[in-house]
Specification:
This protein has one domain. The chain is α+β, with helices and mostly antiparallel strands and 116 residues long. Strands 1-2-3-4-5 form a 5-stranded antiparallel β-sheet.
Length: 116
């Protein structure tokens, strides 16, 4: 016999926060657009995505065996403070932080960006 579970009422409990943070479709599209441009120039070769309980991280690599060249992080806890998006260099230096992802990604503009 199968057990019948009660249907949860929408008014009984408030919605739980997500168990992991992720980039939404628009954010991921913007990141992959910049990534694709840099891959076509031959500067970047690989990436990884991590979705943790407190942040989402898009790591960029020159080669799969290297350490990450850059990390693009989304930390919603900083939304009302410094901004939830940041681009972080290998040593942990924050290159750009802000509320708007497209503005933060401008750190990779070809006029200001040089390969490490």
């Amino acid at each position: 016999m199968s057990e019948i579970l009660p249907f949860p009422s929408s008014s009984s409990t408030p919605p739980k926060p997500p168990s992991q943070i992720a980039f939404d479709r628009k954010e991921l599209s913007a990141i992959l657009n910049v990534y694709g441009q840099m891959v076509s120039k031959g500067d970047w070769k690989d990436y990884a995505m991590d979705f943790l309980s407190d942040k989402a991280v898009f790591s960029i690599y020159r080669r799969a065996s290297d350490h990450a060249l850059y990390r693009i992080e989304k930390v919603p806890a900083l939304r009302k403070k410094q901004g939830q998006f940041a681009v972080i260099a290998p040593g942990g230096l924050v290159l750009k932080r802000g509320h708007d992802l497209l503005t933060v990604l401008k750190v990779f503009d070809k006029s200001r960006f040089r390969s490490v």
